[in-house]
Amino acid sequence: METFLIIGSLIALLMLRVPVGFAMGALGAVLLAMKGLPLVAIPQRLFGSMDSFELLAVPMFLLMSNVLLKGGVGRDLFSAVQAWVGHWPGGLGVATIMSCTLFSAISGSSVATAATIGTVAIPEMKKRGYDEPFTLGQLAAGGTLGILIPPSIPLIIYGVITETSIPTLFKAGIGPGLLLATIFIIYAMVYSRMGAAAPIAKADWSERAHATFYALPTVILAVAIIGSIYAGIATPSESAGVGFVLAMIITFAMGRMDWAKLKKAVEDSLITTAMIFIIIAGAKVFSYAITLYLIPQTISAFLLANISNPSLFILAVGCVLLIVGFFLESLSMMLIMVPVLFPALEAMNIDPVWFGIFFVVLIETALITPPVGLNLFIIQAVGKARLESVVKGAMPFALMMLGTAVLLWFWKDLVLYIPYHFR
Fold it and tell me: Residue 367: phi, psi to the nearest 5?
């Protein structure tokens, strides 16, 4: 009964639109006070939640992606990819997904990826006759690659919560991320053959060379970030810091950045970082409180008593995440659900690396499902369109993501082969 009351109280606070971080932090504080614990434990937990070297990567990756966004790097990436594949069937759609994939390998942020590439791709695709729902839906879905293809901010936070190796999680995200990008590309090519999109003339070699030259610094930046992590030269936090410095050098050297834009990039990064860390701090207090009340252990025991089969457990988790995803954004889902589910995960011997990728694919889906899919609102704002059009175009991509999540269960090596065979 105690467990249901606590969970019900949290749901009630969220339904009353209390911000997630404050809802979890306040409820956690009340629960600690009811246990008679000194309230000094709360500021200690708040400080402890942010006193993490691994979490330093979050603001640094956000800073870097915002600098690149303000510096117009997305236009260079899109122009270069378009020059090489724009003449293919559905060439602009293919270029859009490829550009999202490349920018994802730099930013680690779904919002930054969708906003950066969307600003450039949406006008081009509309001009070439691509219908609005497909254009907007593709950008919303392409942006979600930013939290699966490494470096990924949600994977960093998942690694901190579960004490799982972040570089290992990054490696595990490569296969599913590229698979999902490939599925999106195939859909774009098939869809274009059924539509009325105007073809693009094949670019000559001088145009390709010119476009590639301007995009090359950004590609080198992506290789430097990911390569330094995988080679063991730098931690994710260190590579994020180096990436931010390189992003500054690139954008200033190309004349794309000034102090006003830099100030705006810092302000945007500060706002997002504050939001993320407030949620993390509140979740830490709440997690500490529910651990004292033995709620994760109670839920774990309930699941083990009623669902002994790992396949059924994953199916139940997937259904719960899909429902929760209608009401919570991705980071909140992770910080609320992972501490509760993780004990049962360990008891069933489910690989935490595999589960982390499976979890992220499902919260990717939540990013493009109404009513609170964040990428839907980002693309609506960028494309100056009706939300109904974005939702209509995003639904086929949401189904593709769900299909990928199912595939991950039957083909676990898609996630685990790279991290466990290329150490």
Answer: -70, -20
Q: State both tokens at 79.
A: 């122009």
Report helix angle 387-410 to 413-421, nearest 10: 70
- Flag whether 118 is in a domain: yes
H helical segments located in 231-258: 236-253
- Domain-located, residue 43: no
Which pLDDT belongs to residue 332? 80
Whether residue 404 lies inside any domain: the answer is: yes
Q: What is the pLDDT of residue 305?
A: 77
Amino acid at 367: L
In the predicted model, residues of the chain with pLDDT beneath 50 are none
Q: Give the single-character DSSP code of 198.
A: P
Which pLDDT value is given to residue 195? 65
Which amino acid makes up residue 215?
A
pLDDT of residue 364: 86
The letter for the amino acid at 191 is Y
The residues near 134 (Cβ < 8 Å, ≥ 6 apart) are 93, 191, 195, 393
| The amino acid at 384 | K
Peptide bond into 296 cis (omega under 30): no
Considering only CA atoms, which of 143, 59, 96, 120 is closest in space to residue 373?
143
By the 8 A CB rule, do 163 and 346 touch? no
> Which domain does 410 fall in, by range?
53-421
pLDDT score at 197? 63
pLDDT of residue 356: 95
Question: Is 250 inside a domain boundary?
Answer: yes
Domain count along the chain:
1
For residue 150, cis peptide bond before it (omega within 30 degrees of 0): no
- For residue 390, the model assigns a pLDDT of 93
Distance (Å, whole) CA 34 – CA 6: 12
